[in-house]
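Ligand: pyridoxal-5'-phosphate. Inputs:
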Amino acid sequence: MEKLQANVMKDTGKEVSEASNKEIFYALTSIVNEEIVPAWVATQKKYKEKNSKQMYYLSMEFLIGSLLKSNLLNCGLLPLADLALQKLGRNPEMIYAQEHDAGLGNGGLGRLAACFLDSLASLQYAGHGYGIRYRYGLFEQRIIHGNQVELPDYWLKDPYPWEHRKENEAVHVQFHGKVHMLQRTDGSLEFKYENTDKVMAVPYDIPIIGYENNVVNTLRLWSAEAYFEENDGIEGNHKYFHELDHQHSIEQISGFLYPDDSSYEGKELRLKQQYFLVSSTIQHVIKNFKKDFQLPLSRLAEKVVIQINDTHPSLAIPEMMRILMDEERFSWEDAWKVTTKVFAYTNHTTMSEALEKWPKSMINYLLPRIYMIIDEINERFCQGIWFDYPELRDKIPEMAIIAYEQVHMARLAIVGSFSVNGVARIHTEILKKQEMKNFYTIFPDRFNNKTNGITHRRWLLQANPKLATLISEVIGTQWIKRPKQLISLLKYTKDRGLLEKFDQVKLENKKALANFIFDRTGITVDEQSIFDVQIKRLHEYKRQLLNIFHIIYLYNELKENPSIDMTPRIFIFGAKAAPSYHLAKEVIKLINTVASIVNYDPAIQGKLKVIFLENYNVSLAEKIIPAADVSEQISTASKEASGTGNMKLMMNGALTIGTLDGANIEIHDLVGDSNIFIFGLTADEVLNYYQNGGYLARDIYHTDDRVRKILDQLNKGAFGLHDMEFKDIYYNILYHNDPYFVLKDFEPYIETHELVEQAYRDRFTWLNMSLNNIAYSGKFSSDQTVQEYANDIWKIKRL
Ligand SMILES: *Cc1c(COP(=O)(O)O)cnc(C)c1O
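Predicted complex:
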């Protein structure tokens, strides 16, 4: 506390009592920084002494959220900080809330990268993240008259206390220009680039702190800055404006994060961002290798492994080839041998709108040398199929990296990597059997599964301290370092006295969320209600629409018979839609419109409330998840690669209502039928409908009165200001034949929700189920996931 007081005085010249929350926040961050900087240096030194193999995690997104609280937690200073702040008359949460979330990701993919960094450091692995320091993160969402409105997220408005600019480690990245091919005297080819546009990549390093182990790893984010060559031949005033213009267009490269989740936009600037990330990182990787290890580059793979998070960084493969050949004078064959031993690729989706393809003309224009290399990789790969796999000859057009004027990034990533992994068991099976089956025939050993995970430190210890404390009272604290030991909770699932304590914790968390909801929306919710939560990006495949249809159905039932005996339910949503995703935005409008009717209808006596919390992000997730009773994981089977929200909610004692999709299947396998609510089509059934037809949404519209009523209400303005307000949803279901099977799964969903409601009435059965979920959730700690990557793919050892 004295230190905090002294820091406030030093920084602001004020007594603590005079200081603002923000000033105290900064004083606290500088204490943490003092603590970690020596450990940061020491960690790098230890890795060097031990000759540790380095794992580089390349990702266009790192959704790290806010760091003060998790840094304090991992340094073991959180209780002390809480106490000091309280003694100074401050509410610790108000101080922690001063930090603006680093929203450098869209959703699950970026959050996964953040959880992995936490686990890598906590398990003492030499693993570091590489990404882009976007000046604007994912947009801030406001809901105005029920509609999503996007505001820019200028998260750097206040100085960001965790980043360290390392200007002396800047590198140059080159775009455009011409490539000249020359023959050296020894007959080998030399490639020279002319008239390229050079951009400076300046690293900003963020320390990633391991849990109570003095390990500090690095998340390095590259920022694009202008680089002026002395003699560019432009003079005077003209030069000044030219430079400003030039500077602006360069800074745009790290200007903002593209807000598309699980889909891509073929914009040139996005391609520039991707190459900017991979070129700066690969240059750095090679420099580090030369500096740290006295080994020839041909042995790179012994000391370096690079994981690429989805295809977005897959240009790293041709970039590695370029540097090895053009700068290090490797032959093609030698360069390829090294490259394909270094890269491992994680696939995150099989949905066609998300599979990246770039026009070959765009790559050729922006990155001419890289294009030549991709072309050569493609030629050799296709020839290989032709000669070695004659039975696959007619499949070449669907396997070629360059086909029909497009470069297929997933194919490039598979061909250039030694490992290809899916992110949940079913997802990996679908990759092997369907989407990538021809590649699986050629490279069966490359394919492997690594089910996603979440850091239990942030999502349980930090977000839900009351639950964490209670767990430690019951089974001791070993679970914190070995989350699988949560399984010991199984011994207590019948202990009524204890279950009541768990109930009490949940109730307190629900009260806290109810207060938060009241502050944000002015709506009162009763903490005795069922808190039913669906928080995730808004996507058709995630089927928020099915959820809101069920709510409309309940509302219709209550209107017909207000005396129905029903446990009051609060349906809580959080979801951002990509700004250009029209249908997703219409669903947001529908949820808010239904909310505005249901929440103010006295006839239903508060039995139903609908809350849409705006600007869903990591900090909001940390508030909602500890208070959830029911976790909605209702994607169309086969579509959700894994999901991680499902794991966070399970770990906090929520019961899942879900389809057999992604990691829901693995949750189901662990907890068993009696501790989860499964419904709906299976992935096989869905894939079968897609392949063979046989589903007619209109049939359900005509035969199910409940469904017809809802759709007619949408069409006739019952929930809108005017008729046809939600016409695009209506048309999508009836005229585009309900591509995500909302109507098909409607009846089983309603029936399963009835089971949920009945189960909730039996307090001890419910609490028993809830505790079962917490007990089995240790399996989904990202410590487990990272351990598996480390053993099977990365081949790295703990410090
Ligand atoms: C965990 C998380 C996600 C991923 O949620 P899913 O339900 O798996 O889609 C998205 N956004 C945030 C902020 C998260 O914390």
